Each structure stands twice: as C-alpha cells, then as structure tokens.
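User: If only I could read backbone structure tokens as easily as an amino acid sequence. Underneath my words sits a plain record pairing an amino acid chain with its backbone structure tokens. This is the protein in question:
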Amino acid sequence: MTLAKKLLDFHSPGNRFSYYPLTSKWEEVKKTAPSLPSPSTEGFGIYIHIPFCREICTYCGCNIKISNQKEEHLQYVKALSMEKKLRWDKINPPSDLLNITFGGGTPNFLNPKAKELLLEELGPLIGAQTSSGQMEVDPRYFTREDAQWAFALKINRFNFGVQDFNSEILSNVNRRQSLDHLHRAKEALLPQQIMGMDLLWGLPKQDERSMKNWYSHLKTLAPDWISFYPLAKVPWLESIQNAYGDFTLPDRERKYELYQWGVEIFESLGYRNQGMGHFVKKNGPLDQTLYRKVSGLFPQKTPYLMGLGVSAITEGPDFMAQNYKILDRYLFSLLKKNELPLFKFHKKSQKEKQMNQLVEDIFSHHTIPELLKQRVPEEWREPNSNDISNLGLHFKKNIMQIGEKTIFEA
C-alpha cells in the first residue's frame, strides 16, 4: 500500500498541536487584563507579529493587513514598543532573552524607518545569551539591507515563503513570484545566515508533473530545512479566492498523492523527516533535536514565549494568552488606554501540561510515551522499542490525537 493510501486511511482533521489547548477553549478577558506571569531565570523568547503585506495571497489565512503606508507602519511599531515596555517592566527577577522570531504578514515588508525604530527598541535587549532568531520572509522583496537589519538582532534563520516553484500555479493564487526572486533572496543572505522554505501541498493546479519539477529547484537552492504544509480551507476567503483565479481544490485522495510526491523528492535530496511536515537537511545546521512552538521550530528549548503584536500568543509553563486579533483594538488598547491588549487567557490544567509534555516527546524526541504503546499501530514504532518508525513519522499528528484521547479519558 502506498504512503498516500495509508494516510488516506488514517485521515483525521483537527489540531496540529503547535500549541495546546486551542484558543477556542480559552476565556475572553472581560474587564481588567490579568497580570501575566514573568519568565523564569531559564530565559525566554520573543515572537513579534508584523501584519503588513503588499497584497493578498488567496491561499493565506494569516492575520494580515494590506498596507504600504509609512504612518501605519510607524504607528504599529509605536504600539509594539509600548507593549514591550508594559511587559518588560514587570519581569522580575531579570531573565535572559534567548531568541527573537518575526512572523506575519511580511516582516521584511515593514517600512525602513519603522525597522530602524524597532531595532532601537529591541537592540538593548540582545545579550550574550541571545543565541539565534528566525524571521518569515517574502523572497520577492528580501534585500541585503533586510539581512543586515536582522543580523543586528541575532536573527540567523529565514523562512522563505515559496509555496511552489511554478509561476502559473502561483499567479492563480495572486502571488507573482519567479525563480529569479528566490535566487536573489538567497544571495542577499549574510554568510552567517541560513535559509529554509515553506512549501504547500494541495494548491489548485498542482499535479505530479509540476511537483516533480521541484527536484531541480530544491537541488539548486538547497534550503537547510523545508516546512511542507497542507493547504488549509479558509471559508472567509472563498469569495476573494474565486475572484482572483480558479480555486478548485484537489480531492482528498489527490492531496495525499501530492504529499507523497513531495516527500519522495525531499528524501531523495537527503532531507530527514522530522514529522508534522518538517524536513531538515541531513548533517545540516538543524539536524538535531528541534522544539516546536506556535511561532516555529527552534534548536533550543524555550520554556517561555512572549508574544508581541496583534493576535500574538504568549505561552508559559502554566498559562497561555492571546492579544486582540483586530488591529484597531490592539492599537487602541496600547496607544489610547495604555494597557496590555489581552483578548484571551488560559491557565493550564495538570492534564493539559501532561499533554504538552507528550507533544514534546513525540515531536522533539520521536518517542511514543509508554501509556500509548498499546494504542498505536505496531508499524508506527520500531520493533521492541518506543521509538517512532520511519513510517510513523508521517503519523505524528495521529499519535498526538491518540495521546489526547488517552489523557483526557483517564
């Protein structure tokens, strides 16, 4: 039986477990925003959401705003600065900043003056313990100046939003991107910086022929890691999607065939499957234990993630919180009311903490916890071992779902 057929047999929509539980389980903050616990002395990371984009890509369901207005960008950075101050002043005892991550939106689309102000705000936080950082990038607009700006914040990893290499497929979803864009973006990196790619499976017009052409492009561009995500159905974008192009999606069986073709290409080029759609170059800089948070993959464990910006999520060992998802409410809360823009808050139960550890064991350490051993198909684990098998790596989400059911049934 092919991998695609096996995946089809175990098709199971739902949580991808980049954070747990889902925000639908959290409580809305009705009145005064709660005081968020401070990071421990182990250190913390910062995630900063930059919502601005030049234009809409119709496959994307991220929290974005189409704007190239300098004043809007500057106003947003002013709000970020206020939020950072409100959060930073309450950190006691002091804690080391381990890493900074930028997501979006399009962080490299931020106005140059806004970038300059943001660097002035964040630069003093960088210390000896700040070892690395990551930034989502639209390769069409990435320059050497962007790379230098990021390097000043110790950002050394860049996620290029590639999605596909076929210009016709991309134009159909309102993304006009060429191979030249990708090569120029890679050439803009500094020697100390590395690059990975986000690719999608399930886009309209993708087929076996178009995906087999990925091989030569990936071989030439040689990303250090690949994040291979399924196209998510976003109902609120349906009218926009149909207005820009033909958004007829492949059926479920064809989608899993697309996934299988992609996996075969990655493995033939020497990428190691980490599960959950992540592949790293064997013997490359990220071929190690990786930890997964809502903001991406990290080569170090980050026990506390401080989320800054509209819709950003903060996560500590015992709690989770989310900022307002509507930009105007986020700005009003900070610039007019001088208070934290918290929208939702959740205190983790003991079972939810147990679930967090289970997700880490499965994703980062590739092991099946003992309590699941009898509930997971034998072919998903190595013989006489709790290690996840090569086949089982494709079913990590299913194993996590089994774990969720097991923990909350107990």
The chain has two domains: 1-26+350-410, 36-347. The longest strand covers residues 97-104. The chain has a mean pLDDT of 94. The chain has 13 helices and 17 strands.
